[in-house]
Amino acid sequence: MPELPEVEVVRKQLKNLVLNKKIANITSEYTKIFNEDFNLVKESIVGSKIIDIERYGKYLVFILSNEFNLISHLRMEGKYFVKEQNEPIDKHEHVIFHFDNGETLRYHDTRKFGRMDLRTKDDYLKVNPLFKLGKEPKDLTGEELYEMLNKKTTFIKVALLDQEIIAGLGNIYVDETLFMSKIHPERRSNTISIDEANLIVHSAQKVLAKALELGGTTIRSYTSSLGVTGRFQNELQVHTKEGELCTLCGTVITKLKVGGRGTYVCSNCQK
What is the pTM of this model? Predict the structure, then answer.
């Protein structure tokens, strides 16, 4: 699924393609993607322009020219396409924003897991889904992370996937962060020391910075729909590397389930 670097790539590309375009209509064949009544959404944003696009963790926020914003979470396989009005509609294009210049912005989601929320500009950061979102690694201190982990007995892998603790990390980047920190994903969160918490934050910052530089990771279900192919998959140290040798110690990398998620680990480096 797209994580912070991939969503940031989408944000930047969308800004190049849809900024200052006026929404003339919205159509949807699967209105359950919206957490509000579709007719209310349509009434609220048709006629407005997209004047900016922000990102908070894995969420995109379309800033509109009126009093509303539209929050989008891509979940597992959500993508955006910009197409001409007369291009055929793919069966997985569930929401279409029609612009007054004849172009469309289409939300494509094979599994229909993505969600959109309509919020006013006054409260979009104060209510769900954004108000409980944790800080991104670049804004987080080791001391803050330590305080949160110290209260939890869950596996550290599970804790780092919790968006209320750290925003933006998903399965790929948690695996890479823990490998760089030399911490086993099944360590209990409340056993992490202050030094290890500092190391986790530093490692997450480093991993995400490199991923952002390389345009994210293109593996399995995530590929860019907007002309960008991520290259961070060429830098992965453990994720998807089951059966390969650890680049640091030569131990065979194994795969296990942690909190229901496929997890890759070097049992020697991450004891």
Answer: 0.91
